[in-house]
């Protein structure tokens, strides 16, 4: 099969249908390679990334991301059975783990390099710098749930704990729109809770951030009264401080902590949200005048949300189950 400047031996069925399938497959691979398009088989909307001999180094080996790569053959029955599970896993892992697929009958250089002898062969490339020691064979189950569970377990082993970020300007608050969930804490004013007291609260958040690090959530905090629009939008402060809300920008929902602001209380709250057992509340927001951002530690911060977040519907949600 000749494709571009390369040719590879044909290893499919010796039938007219087999030859046609191989030709179409080669043409699609070349088109995807030229466009840098994602593909997982029959669906153009798949989150599986098409890998080739020419883009493997750039996309996988030179990246800091954790990758799961399937080496497959188009005629392989087991590969066809795996395809929908592989695509579903890619969607569930999107934003956390990269999921790719390489046709080993066409792109034989990479298949040979990683000693692929059967199909499908799945290999994990750990996060960070890629070496021969960072590649692992996956020998687990072939359902999407098996694949996702394995990937998240490996991700937790590699990922660093999240930073607990103080909201001081628009950039620091953007983490709420870039993560699956964002944990927003309002801590007591420094006059009501001295430095040691505040550090104790931040330490609690840091420990829980480490515990839930594989969730890839964002974690932010601000001082009571410093961000009134944020407090009003999430209906925080009415029960005193400290207070907490968890925001899901994609699903346009949020949920507030009604229990104790303790390691145990917050853990139960976050655990319930993880299993969809929390409740959301309606949010309100008003536009405000932006103050000049100050550096951390000055005691002064901006007093409004980014315009992009202010004008979005995420602060006017209906009361509904958090799922």
TrEMBL record:
Q: Which is an annotated Pfam family here?
A: Thioredoxin
EC number of this enzyme: 5.3.4.1
The cellular location(s) given in this protein's UniProt record come to: Endoplasmic reticulum lumen
According to its UniProt record, this protein's enzyme class is isomerase
**Which BP terms does GO give this entry?**
response to endoplasmic reticulum stress
The record's annotation in CDD domains points to:
P5_C (cd02983), PDI_a_P5 (cd03001)
Entry GO CC: endoplasmic reticulum lumen
Any one Gene Ontology MF annotation carried by this entry is: protein disulfide isomerase activity
Name all Thioredoxin domain ranges: 20-157
- Signal peptide positions (record): none
Question: Organism's domain of life?
Answer: Eukaryota
Q: Which InterPro entries match?
A: PDI_thioredoxin-like_dom, Thioredox_PDIA6_C, Thioredoxin-like_sf, Thioredoxin_CS, Thioredoxin_domain
Q: Which Gene3D superfamilies match?
A: Glutaredoxin (3.40.30.10)
Annotated keywords: Disulfide bond, Endoplasmic reticulum, Isomerase, Redox-active center, Repeat, Signal
Q: Which reaction does it catalyse?
A: Catalyzes the rearrangement of -S-S- bonds in proteins
Q: Which NCBIfam families match?
A: pdi_dom
What protein family is recorded?
Answer: Belongs to the protein disulfide isomerase family.
State what protein this is by name.
Answer: protein disulfide-isomerase
**What organism, scientifically named, is this protein from?**
Papilio xuthus
């Amino acid at each position: 099969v000749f494709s571009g400047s390369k040719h590879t031996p044909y290893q499919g069925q010796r039938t007219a249908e087999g030859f046609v399938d191989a030709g179409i497959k080669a043409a699609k691979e070349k088109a995807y390679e030229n466009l840098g398009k994602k593909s997982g088989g029959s669906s153009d909307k798949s989150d599986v990334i098409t890998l080739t001999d020419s883009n493997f180094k750039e996309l996988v080996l030179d990246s800091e991301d954790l990758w799961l790569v399937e080496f497959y053959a188009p005629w392989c029955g087991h590969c066809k059975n795996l395809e929908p599970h592989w695509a579903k896993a890619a969607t569930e892992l999107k934003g956390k783990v990269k999921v790719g697929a390489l046709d080993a009958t066409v792109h034989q250089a990479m298949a040979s390099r990683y000693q692929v002898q059967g199909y499908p062969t799945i290999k994990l490339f750990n996060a960070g710098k890629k070496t021969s020691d960072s590649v692992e064979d996956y020998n687990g189950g072939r359902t999407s749930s098996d694949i996702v569970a394995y990937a998240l377990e490996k991700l937790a082993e590699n990922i660093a704990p999240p930073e607990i970020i103080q909201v001081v300007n628009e950039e620091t608050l953007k983490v709420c729109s870039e993560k699956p969930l964002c944990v927003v804490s309002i801590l007591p004013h420094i006059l009501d809770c001295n430095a040691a007291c505040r550090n104790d609260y931040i330490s609690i958040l840091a420990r829980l951030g480490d515990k839930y690090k594989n969730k890839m959530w964002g974690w932010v905090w601000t001082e009571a009264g410093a961000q009134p629009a944020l407090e009003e939008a999430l209906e925080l402060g009415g029960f005193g401080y400290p207070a907490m809300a968890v925001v899901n920008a994609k699903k346009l929902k949020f949920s507030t902590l009604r229990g104790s602001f303790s390691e145990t209380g917050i853990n139960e709250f976050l655990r319930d949200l993880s299993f969809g057992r929390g409740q959301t509340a309606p949010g309100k927001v008003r536009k405000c005048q932006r103050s000049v951002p100050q550096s951390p530690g000055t005691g002064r911060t901006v007093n409004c949300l980014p315009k992009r977040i202010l004008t979005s519907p995420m602060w006017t949600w209906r009361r509904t189950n958090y799922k």
